[in-house]
Amino acid sequence: MHDRQEPPSGIHPLLSGRFSPYRFDPSAVVDDHALGLLLEAARWAPSAGNSQPWGFFTGRPGEPEHDRILPHLAPSSARWATDAGLLVVALTRRHVDDSQLLYSEFADYDLGQAVAHLTVQAQAMGLAAHQFRAFDMEGLTKELDPNPGWAIVSMVAVGKAADAPAEGRTRHSVAHLRSAPWSRVE
Amino acid sequence: MHDRQEPPSGIHPLLSGRFSPYRFDPSAVVDDHALGLLLEAARWAPSAGNSQPWGFFTGRPGEPEHDRILPHLAPSSARWATDAGLLVVALTRRHVDDSQLLYSEFADYDLGQAVAHLTVQAQAMGLAAHQFRAFDMEGLTKELDPNPGWAIVSMVAVGKAADAPAEGRTRHSVAHLRSAPWSRVE
Predict the structure, then answer these.
(1) pLDDT tens, B47-80?
(2) Which domains, and CATH codes, for chain A?
(3) Across the interface, which of A42, A109, A144 has its CB nearest the CB of B112?
(4) Given phi > 0 = left and psi -120 to 50 = alpha, else beta, which region is B41?
(5) Is there a contact between B181 and A7 if contact means CB atoms under 8 Å apart?
(6) How far is CA B78 from its chain centroid?
(7) Interchain CB distance below 8 Å, B14 and A18
(8) Would the pTM count as exceeding 0.90?
(9) Which of A47, A76, A177, A186 is the best mutation test for B, with the most CBs of B within 10 A?
(10) How far is CA A4 from CA A7, A166, A169, A173, B33, in A?
(11) Which ipTM was obtained for this model?
(12) Which among A106, A169, A180 has CB closest to B55?
């Protein structure tokens, strides 16, 4: 069901070279210019009806925003995410204000696209991104207090990777990718 | 609230040059090699816990799969999507089989990432992608009959663009992107 292999050579290097580091170089700074470009990359992602249902809270080491995020990391992510030059909290707008009315049925899907664009831009700047969910969702939501309708979905650590991708990354086969939705046999 | 402008020059060209064409060159074929690379690009996208909750049904003009998709396009998308060299139906696995148990809370988010990777790969190959929801969801779901737990989310038309991006594409400002989740003033 899984292939242990590397991406084929025809994949663009920004995609095939991407991996989620478990170690970041704590001395590598994400400066204002780089931060601006990462957010611009997310900003220009496509979205359903151009709804752009995404928002980002960012913190870099030394910034008060960073101090607001850190206490809510799980021990498993704090070990490596603390060293990253940038932490991004990714939010989506699922609902209109405090109603149950959907703001966009594609809110999560579109946020995923925006974060993917941010990730590709990071790669293009010699940085790497590691998305994670290992944080206290309730505590961080209370701390950041987003507007009604908005929800925290994920976090992204961005910085200079201090490790290499694990050998033999694991993926479902292409056949699986195409047949899984129609075949009970996986 | 919106900026009418172009992406800044520091954004990688594969991201800044991306747009969703409303016209495709009907003579431009997406061959097997290109189709394989598009799916590989999606396949190597990141996902929560490496869950890879995505699946794709593809059809190219002349293929029986294309004929299964076409009747379910809305008139608004049939006008341009029919000419694309490739139609992709993107599915996500939200639930475990026919239970209400989540397969992944990031199913839609991760599918968005995989489609974004497919889109970036298309750009890298001189193709363009236009995602859309203008199709008969019920009819297409009945036609493709995905396994329990799987759901169609979007479609993607991929091909050679036969138009140019509209001038002055519209995006929320970066300030909005950062402040919207915390400020009622938009």
Answers:
(1) 999 999 999 999 999 999 999 999 999 999 999 9
(2) 18-162 (3.40.109.10)
(3) A109
(4) alpha
(5) no
(6) 16
(7) no
(8) yes
(9) A177
(10) 10, 11, 6, 9, 21
(11) 0.95
(12) A180
